[in-house]
Amino acid sequence: MDRHELNRMFDGLAPDLRRERELLRQLLQDDMRRKRPMKNWKRAMIGAAAAALLVTGAAAAVVVPRLNQGFLDYLNVEPEDTEAVAQAENLLLPGAMELDITKEDNGATLHVTQILRDRCEVMILADFTAPEGTQLYMGEPDPDGWTTYKGFHDGSGYSVGFLDAEGARMGDGLVSSYGWEVLEDDDPMDNHLAVMFTLSLQMGEDEAVWSAASLRVPAVDLAYYDREQQGTVTVYEGDWSFQTPLPQKDIGWAVQLGQAVGELDGAAVTAGELYLSPMTLAVSLRREGGLDFVGVALDEEGEAAYGRWMSIGNNVQRLTLTTGDGETIPLELTSGGGGIDENEKIVVHRLSQVTDPAKFQGGTLTLEWDFHNSEESGSVTLSLDNLAPVAP
């Protein structure tokens, strides 16, 4: 196995999108069951995001025809809070672009309502409605938290793909992973579901993808994987694949840190750019010194050191975002990210809910890691004082 294959292997150790999103839903559900904190903050977040985006024109109003519990959870809105729900029905999500794409097949309708796009990810929210009397039961939640397939899949000859301004398909190496998921439903036996499509870009390809004008999204046969039957159960047949325009503005904020993080196997690790969008946090980590990983045959100890470096994103034990007002927000879910080259890693994390990056200006990010197969550990707090919108 060569070095590049090892690179891909370690990147693959990160949870896939469905796994991460399922864990996210579980965390939100557990928190909602324990307590429902920050009522005033949630109202303020919604109001502030709407006000800010009305001023900047960064997004259009996103109207959600039916808000089920899964979508309210994602927005961190309590269903009994009628004021917040009313605001959510006309919510201006930070960076979101309004869509009104309707696809009909076999009596059912997929209504695509909004899209968010940053350097790392594309997120699309939609509603799926079958004829009255249909039960769109998507199986029981997995008791151990490991997600099984729930959503749409590719159809024959219609896989996901970026398209240029002329409508021609762009290269296949731009996408790292993608998939649909069904948000938690307050009535799992009715004829309506809220669904979300997420796509992660291949690291280092974000500049190429910004030239894309639209995205082709497959959505064939609503189905789920039944663990007891060990097979896929098709809930509703049809093809609702669609093509959507892509937002052309980078909705992220960034700060150049240039701050020492610590040492790993004799190499100095430095934090470079920190990128924060309403849905994504990405930190560049670069190593200098230590073993040379480029074009050099490594012994067993060297390969172990290489493995620790390539898996650094998966060994981050805790990330804590603190706002400019001093509010501490832990980030529980992380992704290993990818590599620009042998000595630089982009570690990507997803926010537990869509949040205006302006909230974190003047705050901090605390990063803690611990390698279980070595004595290496560390902790560093990075300042977000200079966090600012990226250049247009």
Gist of the model:
The protein has 392 residues and is of the alpha+beta class. It is 19% helix and 39% strand.
Q: What descriptors fit this protein?
A:
392 residues, alpha+beta, six-stranded antiparallel β-sheet, five-stranded antiparallel β-sheet, 7 helices, 21 strands, 19% helix, 39% strand, globular, disordered N terminus
Furnish the topology, listing elements before pairings.
Elements: H1 3-12, H2 17-34, H3 39-56, H4 69-75, H5 82-88, E1 97-105, E2 108-117, E3 121-129, E4 150-153, E5 161-163, E6 175-182, E7 192-201, H6 206-209, E8 214-217, E9 220-226, E10 231-239, E11 242-245, E12 253-264, E13 267-276, E14 280-289, H7 300-310, E15 316-322, E16 328-331, E17 334-341, E18 344-350, E19 364-370, E20 377-383, E21 388-389
Helix pairs in contact: 3-5
Q: Could you characterize the architecture of this molecule?
A:
Strand 2 (108-117) and strand 3 (121-129) form a beta hairpin. 19% of the residues lie in helices and 39% in strands. By secondary structure, it is α+β, with helices and mostly antiparallel strands. Helix 3 (39-56) packs parallel to helix 5 (82-88). A six-stranded antiparallel sheet has the order 17-18-14-13-12-21. The protein has helices at residues 3-12, 17-34, 39-56, 69-75, 82-88, 206-209, 300-310, and strands spanning 97-105, 108-117, 121-129, 150-153, 161-163, 175-182, 192-201, 214-217, 220-226, 231-239, 242-245, 253-264, 267-276, 280-289, 316-322, 328-331, 334-341, 344-350, 364-370, 377-383, 388-389. 37% of the residues are buried.
